[in-house]
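Researcher: Structure prediction, please.
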Amino acid sequence: MTNAFMRAFNGPLLLASGTLLMVSASPVLAQNAVKSFSVPAQAAEKGIPQFAQQANIQLMAPEKLVKGKQTAAVEGNMPVREGLERLLAGTNLTPVTQSNNIIVLAENTSVPAARAPSVIKTAYEATATAADEPVSDGDVTEVIVTGIRGSLSKARSIKRRAPNAIESIVAEDIGKMPDLNLAESIQRVPGVAMSREGGEGRNITLRGFGPDFTRTTLNGMEVPASSDGLDTGGVTLNAGRAFDFHLFASELFNRIDIEKSQKASTEEGGIAGTVNLYSARPFDFRKDFTVSASAQGNYNTLNKKIDPRVALLVSKTFADGKFGALVSVAASERTVHQEGYSSVRWTSPFVNGNSWADTNPTVTGTPSGDCGAADPLDCLWAPRLPRADYFGNDQKRVGLTGSFQYRPSDDLLITLDVLHSELTNDRLSYNSMEWLLTHGVAGNYTGQTPRSFTVGADGKTLVAAAFDDVTSWYESRHQKSESAFDQVVLSGKYNVSDSLTLEAMIGKAVDDADRSELRFYYRSVPHYYAYDYSGNEYVPEISFGSYDPNNADNYINAQTASNRINTVKKENFTSRFDATYAVDRLSLKAGLSYNDRTVSYTEGLGAAPTFDPSDYTKPFPVSDFGDGLDGPGLLPFRVADFDAIAAAGIIPAGYTNNAGAAWKVGEETIGAYGEINAEFDIAGMPLRTNAGLRYVKTNVTSQALVSGTPVEVNVSYDNYLPSINAALDVRSDLVVRASYGRSMTRPGLSTLNIAGPVFGYTTRTVGNVGNPSLKPYESNDLDLGVEWYFGSEGLLALTVFNKDIVRSLRTDVVTQMIDPSFWPAIYADPLYDTSYNADPAAVPYTFTIPVNNDDGNNVKGFEITYNQPFTFLPGIWSNFGVASNYTHVEAEDSTGLSPNSYNMTLYYDTETFGARLSVNKRDDYLLSEPGGNGHVQERKYGPTHVDLASFYNVTPRLTLTFEGINITDEVERIYGTGDTGSMDLTREYTHTGAQWILGLRYKY
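Model: Predicted structure follows.
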């Protein structure tokens, strides 16, 4: 085998249409398998892909060899190898080599060494065994498409042959997923936007829908994944449906599929789509023994630490390929410093129902006074709790996978997959808040005395101010969290006959996440304080006069603001059975599924004493606080010494169970579907169709302890979900797609939670309670796409989509009877009195609850994809290429939606060296409407992230890697829009530094 590359060509060579169906059998076994064929005699450009589809193999050949040739008819049941011989009879084409489930066709003649290569072998590994190479190097020259181009090429093939709209990310080798985080990989897919937290991807939005609307599976089974977050992320454990992608190490996975349109055989739950994750299995590898290992050092420019990251995989087949075992492990540590400045929202005294103290401050500029306050100064917007922020996190992540496969014959395959992952975080957070939260006369650690005001040009903002008698509230917080995930899946596939295939799966996944938090407020003596945003709208200049925030004696009072532990446990049990009957160009598929999902939440509360903080402080832990952040810099301050507090026994150990806050929600679903896959010819053009109907019954159970009395509410509902997908091969390189599907997403778990209701017996009202009777979101989805597969790896695609949300949710005021499940709890409530005429069995109450909304909603947009290697350019330029996409989305409810987003990757790829530079950009997006503290909206800045990845093959087995994540050190910013909806008032402005990763990867 020679080391020829695409640059060796005098001009571009084009691959003929290939068919890639992901099958478990190896190439040799696939060729020995007996299949039913109905392939007419026709042009080779159509006959080869049609045969490949019916045989469940992939055939590839240079277009110039196929053009003008006629393939013979293949009819009846026969081994694939025999069918291929009949197909190619008289074409002078022959199968000459195979690798990774790919069979390559070439001319049945010797090729002089001086001629241009006659075969392109699209492989995803750089080596091949002699057994896979029946023809010598003298007979055929091979061009290996590996690296970045190999991954893109394989993903393109999956997209092309899928019956529904799908995008794929494929690792060209184990341990080579193109990013260190799964969310960061997925964000490069059209229609996907990612939210980063602490410099790392956590959740995704797909086609404008929030994370709860995307269903995620792992090895075919829907899975939960929960973790906690930094202060900017809400500081809560994920008890909802959103999937936390950062829980898993990316090295454990070798493929991700994102299904954007519905199929009846795809389980319900994702209006936005379904993300399918796949870990490696032993029969995925061409060799019977594979070892892959990697080690990396991760350097962060902000904290200036080097963190380790290692991975190892061992795969082996035994007994002549009948049994295979694979074990992999990935472990990493990550140190995060997130530093910046925050206002904790801007607000005005008038919005808060109070006024500045009447001290006749010096005023520069003219306040508009448009809010209607008696004093125009009370209309001015100012920062509520201006503070310097520091979040420090030590993270550890460990992942283990095991996969065991048994294939006693060509017709039976049994697979056992196990996965364990742990994510632990140890966070210390420090904030120096100046108390401008409430306005008025100073005293009792609140209030202030205004000295001077500078009004902004808009007449609405207080861009600079000085005060006497301000109290500092220094916040110190220690959080510890651990998320442990375990999954076991047993699956099997049995070819009963040439036409009938049975598949079954049973699995269980458990995610157990907990977080403890201990937080103090150290309060200071009253002092002078001034801020000035006139030179920088994000980070102001600060002055304390003679007050020293680093003098421990200035700390005179401490409150234990929080001492608690929270636990979220998610359990999923899944079983599924599918049967497929295939004959000629038609297949019928039907199946049953059963799921049992539960989510439970518990809370424990610890002691919350007050104490003198002056003896329990230490210097700020970072010497270069604020370096690298635009602006005048950040001032350090004394922080709580958690070790000294623990040694002194100030905080008693242990927690008291807060039984009233605990809840449990269960969902039991039974589904059934029927699906037809067929291929027809329309005016000589193959039309691939997929149509079906899915039925699912959902039983919801919501449990809580109300007034010491157990309460359980049970609800059931049914859904019918039809779908149809059609793909027309207008030409061998042009596909037109259309699809319709009815999709659903069940209500968020918080809306089903009935814990902690507030009953007003004198007013006959109910608040702070969920609604288990909610039915799911439902949508009618339409997709229309055109895909041009030009050249060997090029793709230009346009997809237009529309999701008509026919049922959604809203919060409303409803008068209705209280569910009888609550009556015993109400009667047991000491606050209930029969004299109130509020008997829940006799009179209705007024609820403020989430309810179904049938008014409708709409999400629409389009996606454009353009991928192309520049193999048509001369010399070194032929090694470059581009992978890019752009998405535009419009929605009536735009929460979490960036109207525009794009991804652009420029890569350079050879057998020895490769590199890619990726730019990901999304528009600003809505977080909440209305926003807090008088804001019309609260929004998040749409960042531009720039990432780098490169490799150098030192030897065929040893690779040196160098990568960069967020290399421009992009900031994270949240802002409010004020009372007009058009203001830009920064709430949080932080950065986490750039990451540079140097590593080695070895494969045997």
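Model: The first strand starts at residue 34 and ends at 39.
Researcher: Thanks, that helps.
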